[in-house]
Amino acid sequence: MADQNPDRGILFLFPNQYKTAEKHPYLTGTGDIHVSVLQELLKEKPDENGIIKLQAAAWERVSKSGQKYSFVTFSPKVERSGAEIPNPKGGAKAPSDDESIPF
Fold first, then answer.
1. Cβ 49 vs Cβ 21: under 8 Å
2. Is the pTM of this model over 0.70?
3. Phi-psi region of 82 (alpha: psi -120 to 50; beta: other; left: phi over 0)
4. 84: part of which helix (H) or strand (E)?
5. E strand or H helix at 28, and its extent?
6. Do 11 and 29 touch, CB atoms closer than 8 A?
7. What's the gap between Cα 99 and its chain centre?
8. What are the C-alpha distances in Å from 31 to residues 5, 14, 70, 80, 94?
9. Strand, helix or coil at 2?
């Protein structure tokens, strides 16, 4: 669990070496989930279909052996208000309304 953070689960997805048909997945792999993430998921209220929403993020990486893979993290979905838009360069957040635009 090298990249494990106790507030999220992780997946390592590599190209499927055993793909022989179009319907087979092109990526397969393993993952880890910290027990604290499972506990947080159990606290979430599922929707009318019994589904709990997750937040996910993915990065393309290269292993030490040179093999490309996808690194995926997931955690309980955090609802965000539309009031602010994160600044991708860090620092203060920019307001989301057009009133701050001078023209």
1. no
2. no
3. alpha
4. strand 84-85
5. strand 27-33
6. yes
7. 32
8. 12, 12, 11, 27, 35
9. coil
Query: In the 8-state DSSP scheme, what is residue 49?
Result: T
Q: Which helix (H) or strand (E) holds 72?
A: strand 68-76
Place of tokens 């993915």: 58
1: CB partners within 8 A, 6+ apart: 10, 32
Beta carbons within 8 Å of 45's beta carbon, 6+ residues apart = 52
Residue 80 has pLDDT above 90, yes or no: no
30-72 pLDDT, tens digit each:
999 989 888 888 888 899 999 999 999 999 999 999 999 999 9
In Å, how far are 30, 44, 51, 74 from 41, measured between CA atoms?
A: 20, 5, 11, 11
State which H helix or E strand residue 29 sits in.
strand 27-33
| Tokens 């997946």 -> residue | 11
